Amino acid sequence: MESKRQQKMASLLQQELAQVLQRDLPHLFGGGLVPSISAVNVTPDLAVARVYLSLLLGNDAAERVAIIREHTKEIRFALGKRIRKQARVVPELNFFHDDSAAYAAHMDQVLSKLDIPPAPPEDEDGEADQPERPRLFN
């Protein structure tokens, strides 16, 4: 369970990192789509932040995350300039690919392929025809 302090720092980092990647350092992506930040988790001492990037388009997610990891110092420096009034120390940034959107699309596809039989018809009084269950107590 995250403390309020961790949640506030994670929210601040998520907003400011998005601004850094979109406005300050878009050249890192070679004119391609800038990844969105789906989540940020901060350790209790606020020293390390795990940043989850959502890379929706393209199959080169591993390459794009590797590029971001190579430029972590540059990203952290730009982030530090933006949050210097709100945070005493800029946390160490660890970037990870968030594939939850792809997983959700896969699960949606799996569920759409299921053959689910229709529900049994209902009687006039609104109850479905079901076999009578044995009574446990009289």
Please outline what is shown here:
The protein has four helices and three strands; from the N terminus they run H-E-E-H-H-E-H. It is an alpha+beta fold and 138 residues long.
What does this protein look like?
The chain has 138 residues and is an alpha+beta fold. It has a single domain, classed as GMP Synthetase, Chain A, domain 3 (2-Layer Sandwich). The protein is elongated, with a radius of gyration of 24 Å. The protein contains four helices and three strands; from the N terminus they run H-E-E-H-H-E-H. 41% of the residues lie in helices and 14% in strands. Strands 1-2-3 form a three-stranded mixed β-sheet. Helix 1 (4-24) crosses helix 3 (72-83). Residues 113-138 are annotated as: Disordered.
